[in-house]
Design goal:
globular; 10 strands; Phosphorylase Kinase, domain 1; about 350 residues; Arc Repressor Mutant, subunit A; Transferase(Phosphotransferase), domain 1
Length: about 350
Protein backbone atom coordinates (compact mmCIF):
# COMPACT_ATOMS: atom_id res chain seq x y z
CA UNK A 1 0.00 0.00 0.00
CA UNK A 2 2.93 2.33 0.48
CA UNK A 3 6.50 3.12 -0.46
CA UNK A 4 9.43 4.02 1.75
CA UNK A 5 12.35 6.37 1.13
CA UNK A 6 15.52 7.26 2.96
CA UNK A 7 15.80 11.04 3.22
CA UNK A 8 17.80 13.81 4.76
CA UNK A 9 16.15 16.45 6.95
CA UNK A 10 18.92 18.94 7.59
CA UNK A 11 21.62 16.87 9.26
CA UNK A 12 19.11 14.19 10.31
CA UNK A 13 18.52 10.96 8.38
CA UNK A 14 14.85 9.99 8.33
CA UNK A 15 12.57 7.47 6.69
CA UNK A 16 9.67 8.79 4.62
CA UNK A 17 6.61 6.57 4.30
CA UNK A 18 4.12 7.53 1.58
CA UNK A 19 0.91 6.03 0.25
CA UNK A 20 1.30 4.77 -3.30
CA UNK A 21 0.15 7.52 -5.66
CA UNK A 22 -2.57 5.33 -7.19
CA UNK A 23 -4.08 4.78 -3.73
CA UNK A 24 -3.69 8.30 -2.36
CA UNK A 25 -7.19 9.26 -3.47
CA UNK A 26 -8.74 6.28 -1.65
CA UNK A 27 -10.24 7.61 1.60
CA UNK A 28 -9.92 4.24 3.38
CA UNK A 29 -6.18 4.04 2.71
CA UNK A 30 -5.64 7.67 3.66
CA UNK A 31 -7.62 7.25 6.89
CA UNK A 32 -5.48 4.26 7.88
CA UNK A 33 -2.30 6.17 7.06
CA UNK A 34 -3.34 9.19 9.13
CA UNK A 35 -4.58 6.89 11.90
CA UNK A 36 -1.08 5.45 12.32
CA UNK A 37 0.39 8.95 12.53
CA UNK A 38 -2.11 10.08 15.17
CA UNK A 39 -1.55 6.97 17.26
CA UNK A 40 2.26 7.05 17.22
CA UNK A 41 2.35 10.80 17.85
CA UNK A 42 0.79 10.13 21.28
CA UNK A 43 3.46 7.61 22.27
CA UNK A 44 6.78 8.96 23.44
CA UNK A 45 9.38 6.38 24.40
CA UNK A 46 12.81 5.28 23.07
CA UNK A 47 11.35 1.81 22.41
CA UNK A 48 8.81 3.15 19.87
CA UNK A 49 9.88 4.59 16.54
CA UNK A 50 9.41 8.36 16.63
CA UNK A 51 7.45 10.41 14.12
CA UNK A 52 9.36 13.46 12.93
CA UNK A 53 6.83 15.02 10.60
CA UNK A 54 3.42 14.50 8.99
CA UNK A 55 2.24 16.45 5.98
CA UNK A 56 1.32 16.44 2.33
CA UNK A 57 2.85 17.86 -0.85
CA UNK A 58 0.38 18.48 -3.65
CA UNK A 59 -2.05 16.04 -2.08
CA UNK A 60 0.55 13.32 -1.47
CA UNK A 61 0.60 12.54 2.25
CA UNK A 62 3.85 11.51 3.85
CA UNK A 63 5.03 10.40 7.25
CA UNK A 64 8.65 11.04 8.23
CA UNK A 65 10.05 8.83 10.98
CA UNK A 66 13.37 8.36 12.69
CA UNK A 67 15.79 6.10 10.84
CA UNK A 68 16.89 2.99 12.70
CA UNK A 69 20.26 1.77 11.47
CA UNK A 70 19.69 -1.96 11.72
CA UNK A 71 17.36 -4.80 10.71
CA UNK A 72 14.03 -6.21 11.76
CA UNK A 73 13.93 -9.21 14.07
CA UNK A 74 12.72 -11.44 11.23
CA UNK A 75 15.97 -10.83 9.33
CA UNK A 76 17.97 -11.42 12.50
CA UNK A 77 16.26 -14.75 13.16
CA UNK A 78 16.85 -15.83 9.57
CA UNK A 79 20.59 -15.57 10.18
CA UNK A 80 20.49 -18.21 12.93
CA UNK A 81 19.84 -18.78 16.61
CA UNK A 82 19.95 -15.79 18.93
CA UNK A 83 21.92 -15.88 22.19
CA UNK A 84 19.49 -16.20 25.08
CA UNK A 85 20.45 -12.81 26.54
CA UNK A 86 19.85 -11.09 23.18
CA UNK A 87 16.44 -12.75 22.82
CA UNK A 88 15.42 -11.61 26.30
CA UNK A 89 16.60 -8.06 25.68
CA UNK A 90 14.35 -7.89 22.63
CA UNK A 91 11.39 -9.22 24.62
CA UNK A 92 11.97 -6.87 27.57
CA UNK A 93 12.30 -3.80 25.34
CA UNK A 94 9.24 -4.79 23.30
CA UNK A 95 7.30 -5.26 26.55
CA UNK A 96 8.31 -1.76 27.59
CA UNK A 97 7.05 -0.37 24.27
CA UNK A 98 3.74 -2.17 24.69
CA UNK A 99 3.37 -0.96 28.27
CA UNK A 100 3.73 2.62 27.00
CA UNK A 101 1.06 2.00 24.34
CA UNK A 102 -1.29 0.29 26.76
CA UNK A 103 -0.86 3.13 29.26
CA UNK A 104 -1.39 5.95 26.77
CA UNK A 105 -3.51 8.94 27.83
CA UNK A 106 -5.30 11.65 25.87
CA UNK A 107 -4.80 15.40 26.29
CA UNK A 108 -7.29 15.47 29.16
CA UNK A 109 -5.30 12.86 31.08
CA UNK A 110 -7.75 10.01 30.55
CA UNK A 111 -6.43 6.50 29.98
CA UNK A 112 -6.86 5.57 26.30
CA UNK A 113 -4.93 2.34 25.74
CA UNK A 114 -3.46 1.68 22.31
CA UNK A 115 -3.57 -1.99 21.29
CA UNK A 116 -0.94 -2.66 18.62
CA UNK A 117 -2.61 -5.77 17.15
CA UNK A 118 0.38 -6.69 14.97
CA UNK A 119 3.32 -7.56 17.24
CA UNK A 120 5.64 -9.79 15.19
CA UNK A 121 9.32 -10.15 14.27
CA UNK A 122 8.67 -7.97 11.20
CA UNK A 123 7.61 -5.05 13.40
CA UNK A 124 10.50 -5.10 15.86
CA UNK A 125 13.61 -3.26 14.69
CA UNK A 126 17.03 -3.98 16.18
CA UNK A 127 19.68 -1.31 15.67
CA UNK A 128 23.42 -1.72 15.35
CA UNK A 129 23.69 -0.04 18.77
CA UNK A 130 21.50 -2.69 20.40
CA UNK A 131 18.31 -0.62 20.60
CA UNK A 132 14.93 -2.28 20.03
CA UNK A 133 12.00 -0.33 18.58
CA UNK A 134 8.39 -1.28 17.94
CA UNK A 135 7.02 -0.04 14.60
CA UNK A 136 3.91 -0.15 12.38
CA UNK A 137 0.81 0.95 14.27
CA UNK A 138 -1.22 0.86 11.06
CA UNK A 139 -3.84 -1.53 12.48
CA UNK A 140 -3.58 -0.36 16.10
CA UNK A 141 -6.85 0.18 17.91
CA UNK A 142 -8.07 2.44 20.71
CA UNK A 143 -11.18 0.30 21.26
CA UNK A 144 -9.92 -3.26 20.80
CA UNK A 145 -11.84 -3.48 17.55
CA UNK A 146 -10.99 -2.46 14.01
CA UNK A 147 -10.27 -3.75 10.58
CA UNK A 148 -8.80 -7.23 10.40
CA UNK A 149 -5.06 -6.91 10.68
CA UNK A 150 -1.96 -8.55 12.02
CA UNK A 151 -0.11 -11.65 10.89
CA UNK A 152 -2.05 -14.86 11.46
CA UNK A 153 0.81 -16.79 13.08
CA UNK A 154 1.22 -14.11 15.78
CA UNK A 155 -2.41 -13.13 16.31
CA UNK A 156 -4.10 -14.17 19.56
CA UNK A 157 -6.91 -16.75 19.32
CA UNK A 158 -9.55 -14.15 20.22
CA UNK A 159 -8.27 -11.88 17.47
CA UNK A 160 -8.73 -14.58 14.84
CA UNK A 161 -12.04 -15.87 16.17
CA UNK A 162 -13.78 -12.59 17.01
CA UNK A 163 -11.48 -9.81 15.75
CA UNK A 164 -11.61 -8.36 19.27
CA UNK A 165 -8.37 -7.55 21.04
CA UNK A 166 -7.04 -5.91 24.17
CA UNK A 167 -3.68 -5.49 25.87
CA UNK A 168 -3.59 -9.22 26.63
CA UNK A 169 -3.74 -9.95 22.91
CA UNK A 170 -0.53 -7.97 22.42
CA UNK A 171 0.97 -9.88 25.35
CA UNK A 172 0.12 -13.16 23.59
CA UNK A 173 1.76 -12.01 20.34
CA UNK A 174 4.91 -10.98 22.18
CA UNK A 175 4.96 -14.38 23.87
CA UNK A 176 4.89 -16.09 20.46
CA UNK A 177 7.78 -13.89 19.29
CA UNK A 178 9.81 -14.79 22.38
CA UNK A 179 8.95 -18.49 21.93
CA UNK A 180 10.43 -18.38 18.43
CA UNK A 181 13.55 -16.57 19.64
CA UNK A 182 14.17 -19.24 22.27
CA UNK A 183 13.02 -22.32 20.30
CA UNK A 184 14.87 -21.28 17.13
CA UNK A 185 11.95 -22.13 14.86
CA UNK A 186 8.53 -20.87 13.80
CA UNK A 187 5.74 -21.48 16.28
CA UNK A 188 2.88 -22.06 13.82
CA UNK A 189 4.42 -23.30 10.60
CA UNK A 190 1.79 -24.52 8.12
CA UNK A 191 1.27 -24.59 4.37
CA UNK A 192 -1.90 -22.49 4.29
CA UNK A 193 -3.72 -19.85 6.32
CA UNK A 194 -6.60 -22.15 7.27
CA UNK A 195 -4.20 -24.54 8.97
CA UNK A 196 -2.42 -21.69 10.77
CA UNK A 197 -5.76 -20.46 12.12
CA UNK A 198 -6.64 -23.99 13.27
CA UNK A 199 -3.32 -24.40 15.08
CA UNK A 200 -3.63 -21.02 16.82
CA UNK A 201 -7.28 -21.32 17.86
CA UNK A 202 -7.58 -25.08 18.54
CA UNK A 203 -4.14 -26.55 19.26
CA UNK A 204 -2.22 -23.74 20.89
CA UNK A 205 1.47 -23.07 21.31
CA UNK A 206 3.52 -26.11 22.42
CA UNK A 207 5.70 -25.74 25.54
CA UNK A 208 9.23 -24.53 25.03
CA UNK A 209 11.58 -27.52 24.70
CA UNK A 210 13.58 -26.45 27.76
CA UNK A 211 13.47 -24.21 30.80
CA UNK A 212 14.02 -21.60 32.24
CA UNK A 213 11.40 -19.42 30.49
CA UNK A 214 8.91 -22.18 29.69
CA UNK A 215 6.36 -21.27 32.37
CA UNK A 216 6.45 -17.52 31.75
CA UNK A 217 6.05 -17.90 27.98
CA UNK A 218 3.28 -20.48 28.48
CA UNK A 219 1.38 -18.02 30.67
CA UNK A 220 1.86 -15.17 28.17
CA UNK A 221 0.48 -17.37 25.36
CA UNK A 222 -2.39 -19.06 27.18
CA UNK A 223 -5.38 -19.71 24.90
CA UNK A 224 -7.76 -18.02 27.35
CA UNK A 225 -6.88 -14.34 27.94
CA UNK A 226 -7.95 -14.74 31.58
CA UNK A 227 -5.06 -17.19 32.11
CA UNK A 228 -2.42 -14.73 30.90
CA UNK A 229 -0.58 -12.17 33.03
CA UNK A 230 -2.73 -9.30 34.24
CA UNK A 231 -0.71 -6.93 32.06
CA UNK A 232 2.37 -6.79 29.88
CA UNK A 233 4.04 -5.00 32.80
CA UNK A 234 3.50 -8.09 34.96
CA UNK A 235 4.77 -10.33 32.16
CA UNK A 236 7.88 -8.19 31.83
CA UNK A 237 8.50 -8.37 35.58
CA UNK A 238 8.30 -12.17 35.46
CA UNK A 239 10.76 -12.32 32.57
CA UNK A 240 13.13 -9.92 34.32
CA UNK A 241 13.04 -12.01 37.48
CA UNK A 242 14.17 -15.06 35.50
CA UNK A 243 16.87 -13.00 33.77
CA UNK A 244 18.27 -11.76 37.07
CA UNK A 245 18.18 -15.19 38.67
CA UNK A 246 20.28 -16.58 35.84
CA UNK A 247 22.48 -13.48 35.55
CA UNK A 248 21.90 -13.15 31.80
CA UNK A 249 23.41 -10.20 29.95
CA UNK A 250 20.50 -8.25 28.48
CA UNK A 251 22.42 -5.03 27.89
CA UNK A 252 22.50 -3.22 24.56
CA UNK A 253 25.89 -4.82 23.99
CA UNK A 254 24.24 -8.27 23.94
CA UNK A 255 22.52 -7.25 20.72
CA UNK A 256 24.87 -4.69 19.21
CA UNK A 257 27.38 -7.21 17.93
CA UNK A 258 24.69 -9.11 16.00
CA UNK A 259 23.66 -6.21 13.75
CA UNK A 260 26.25 -4.63 11.44
CA UNK A 261 26.01 -0.87 10.98
CA UNK A 262 25.17 0.29 7.48
CA UNK A 263 27.13 3.51 7.92
CA UNK A 264 26.33 6.80 6.22
CA UNK A 265 24.00 6.34 3.27
CA UNK A 266 24.04 8.80 0.40
CA UNK A 267 20.77 10.65 -0.14
CA UNK A 268 20.04 12.71 -3.24
CA UNK A 269 19.19 16.32 -2.35
CA UNK A 270 15.52 17.26 -2.78
CA UNK A 271 13.97 20.49 -1.58
CA UNK A 272 10.38 19.63 -2.52
CA UNK A 273 9.36 19.04 1.08
CA UNK A 274 10.64 22.33 2.43
CA UNK A 275 8.05 24.37 4.34
CA UNK A 276 7.28 27.74 2.75
CA UNK A 277 5.80 30.90 4.24
CA UNK A 278 5.75 29.36 7.73
CA UNK A 279 4.14 31.29 10.58
CA UNK A 280 4.60 29.96 14.12
CA UNK A 281 1.46 29.07 16.04
CA UNK A 282 0.66 31.11 19.12
CA UNK A 283 0.34 29.39 22.51
CA UNK A 284 -3.43 29.01 22.27
CA UNK A 285 -3.34 27.49 18.81
CA UNK A 286 -0.53 25.13 19.76
CA UNK A 287 -2.57 23.87 22.72
CA UNK A 288 -5.59 23.37 20.49
CA UNK A 289 -3.55 21.45 17.96
CA UNK A 290 -2.13 19.22 20.70
CA UNK A 291 -5.69 18.36 21.71
CA UNK A 292 -6.85 17.74 18.16
CA UNK A 293 -3.97 15.38 17.51
CA UNK A 294 -5.23 13.13 20.30
CA UNK A 295 -8.30 12.26 18.24
CA UNK A 296 -10.85 13.79 20.63
CA UNK A 297 -14.30 14.90 19.52
CA UNK A 298 -14.94 18.59 19.00
CA UNK A 299 -16.94 18.82 22.26
CA UNK A 300 -14.25 16.98 24.22
CA UNK A 301 -11.56 19.22 22.79
CA UNK A 302 -13.47 22.37 23.70
CA UNK A 303 -13.92 21.15 27.28
CA UNK A 304 -10.23 20.30 27.60
CA UNK A 305 -9.18 23.65 26.21
CA UNK A 306 -11.63 25.61 28.37
CA UNK A 307 -10.33 23.75 31.42
CA UNK A 308 -6.86 25.07 30.59
CA UNK A 309 -8.26 28.65 30.75
CA UNK A 310 -6.74 29.70 27.44
CA UNK A 311 -8.18 32.97 26.04
CA UNK A 312 -9.70 32.80 22.60
CA UNK A 313 -9.91 29.00 22.65
CA UNK A 314 -13.18 28.48 20.74
CA UNK A 315 -11.98 30.72 17.89
CA UNK A 316 -8.57 29.02 17.77
CA UNK A 317 -10.23 25.61 17.82
CA UNK A 318 -12.45 26.42 14.84
CA UNK A 319 -9.51 27.90 12.99
CA UNK A 320 -7.18 24.98 13.57
CA UNK A 321 -9.82 22.35 12.90
CA UNK A 322 -10.37 23.92 9.49
CA UNK A 323 -6.62 23.97 8.87
CA UNK A 324 -6.24 20.34 9.91
CA UNK A 325 -9.08 19.21 7.66
CA UNK A 326 -7.53 21.04 4.72
CA UNK A 327 -4.10 19.59 5.44
CA UNK A 328 -2.73 23.11 5.78
CA UNK A 329 -0.51 22.33 8.74
CA UNK A 330 3.04 21.11 8.53
CA UNK A 331 5.69 20.30 11.09
CA UNK A 332 9.04 22.07 11.04
CA UNK A 333 11.78 21.01 13.44
CA UNK A 334 9.18 19.44 15.73
CA UNK A 335 6.93 22.55 15.83
CA UNK A 336 3.68 22.83 13.91
CA UNK A 337 3.28 25.87 11.68
CA UNK A 338 0.66 27.35 9.37
CA UNK A 339 1.63 27.18 5.74
CA UNK A 340 0.64 28.74 2.44
Amino acid sequence: MGEVFLARRGSQTVVIKRILPRLAADKAFLDRFLHEARVVARLNDPTIVRIVELGDVDGQWFLAMEFVDGVDLQALLAKGALPRGAALRIALEAATALSVAHGAKDAAGRLTPVVHRDVSPHNLLVSSAGAVKLIDFGVASLTGQGETGGKLAYAAPEQLLEDVTDAKSDQYSLGVVLWECLAHRQAFDADDDVEVIRLVTEVGLPPLPEEPFREVVAKMTAMDPADRFESVVAARAALLAEVRERKLDVSAASLAGLVPARGQLAVSPNTALETKNAVALDATEQRVLDVLRDGMTLDEAELAIDAASLPGSPFALDLLQALVEKGALRSSDGHFVKTG
